[in-house]
Amino acid sequence: MRRSDWVVAVAMFAVASLAIFIVRDVVPDKVTSKLPYWGDILITGAMTLPLAWRRVKPLWVVTLIGPLFALYRFLEVPEGSVSSFAIFLAIFAAGAYSDASLRHWLRGAAVGFSGLALVYSLLGQEEFVGFDGLTLGALSLAINAGFFAAAWLLGDAWRRRRIDAVELARRADQLAAEREARAHRAVLDERVRIARELHDVVAHHVSVMGVQAAGARRILESDPDRAADALASVEDSSRQAVTELHRLVGFLRSADEEASVEPQPAIEDLDELVARVIEAGLPVEVRTIGKPRELPLAVGLSAYRIVQEALTNVIKHAGSVPTTVIVSYLDNALEVQVVNQRSRTVKPGPGEPGGRGQLGMRERASMVGGDLGFGPIKGGGYRVAARLPTEGIYEDGLSA
User: Which residue, among 332, 281, 347, 277, has the nearest Cα to 310 in the 3D structure?
Assistant: First the structure.
């Protein structure tokens, strides 16, 4: 209950009581009340003080004040217009602060009681006899009908406004929660993307450097020139790894992605990737099926990273075995396969279940709406195959 509601109710009671006191004191011969002074004050309190509960108990208030207003008029309490304001507030509050369908009936009953009291009051006055009196009476009835209609309609309008405000607040909270969830999801997606990029870059270059360094160590004494070439390849791979890491760190530090991110690798850069792997000692053959064409950036990047990760896994798990990369340009998709022969020294195949490489390749494929499969092949060896759709792809990498 609001303090302002109590203030209004008490103020109305005080004003009505003062009006009764003045009328009884100044023109006692004009008083027609059927109650003693204390009775007028008592019924006035019963009419006005319950209005303090009009927001929390609107139906109870209108049920009480409706009959009291009629009784007030029948008893001819000399208070002025405070009682009219009280019935107005009661009818208004029943419509504004109650959602029960019963409010229509209770407001209608209050209006009915008030109408009967008004008709009784008009019939008891001599000036309403004759044509002029009837005209004046009809005008008075019309004014009072407008008075009650205003209380009714304003109450309904206030209720609709209150419901709309609650709904708007609920939608605002829902939108705020959705925005927060989207922001949280965007942060997680970005962290996953960066982690995937770091894994792809670091795992590939470190694996290549490990193979090259191991080869250099084995031939360091027998063939110093070849060992030096291998160490030069290690140096080149480390430099490329550092460049890639600088690019990613630059993206993290910059607020403007356009300004900080260099062009991402694509399937067109596959030859350079294969050349580095061949230098590391892995015999790789590239086959292209179909006519090469321009691809969506996300598809090109995903295909490049999948091949990169698959070749890295071959180096890590199978060693220096013949490997074939097959790139197929289909009508509405790009297929890439990395097939390696069976290793004679290492049994586990590339992309063992549960590895980060396997997860990263799956994410790369699903990011553009594609799918990825891998597993042993008949006769020995291992194959990684991805099918990436080239239609209905947004530039940010999400499938339409």
Answer: 277
| pTM, rounded to two decimals | 0.47
Which residue type does 49 have?
L
Strand order across the 323-329 sheet: 284-289, 323-329, 333-340, 382-389, 371-376
Beta bridge partners of 288: 327
Residue whose pair of structure tokens reads 């008893």 in the numeric block:
75
Q: Rounded to an integer, what distance in angstroms lies between the CA atom of residue 211 and that of residue 219?
A: 13
Segment holding 223, helix H or strand E: none
Q: Is the torsion defined by CA of 238, 241, 247, 252 positive or negative?
A: negative
Rounded Cα gap, residues 375 and 358, in angstroms: 11
Compute CA 242 distance to the chain's CA centroid, rounded to the nearest angstrom. Answer: 39
Beta bridge partners of 323: 284, 340
Q: Which fold has domain 283-400?
A: Heat Shock Protein 90 (3.30.565)
Structure tokens at 169: 């607040």
Per-domain residue ranges of the chain: 3-176, 283-400
Characterize the bridge pairing of strands 323-329 and 284-289: parallel
389 has which bridge partners?
Answer: 333
Tokens of 381: 């060896």
How does pLDDT run across 146-201, given as a tens digit for each residue? Answer: 888 888 899 889 988 988 888 888 888 888 888 888 877 876 776 676 666 666 66
- Three-state SS at 133: helix
| Vertex 354 angle, CA 350 and 355, to 5° | 50
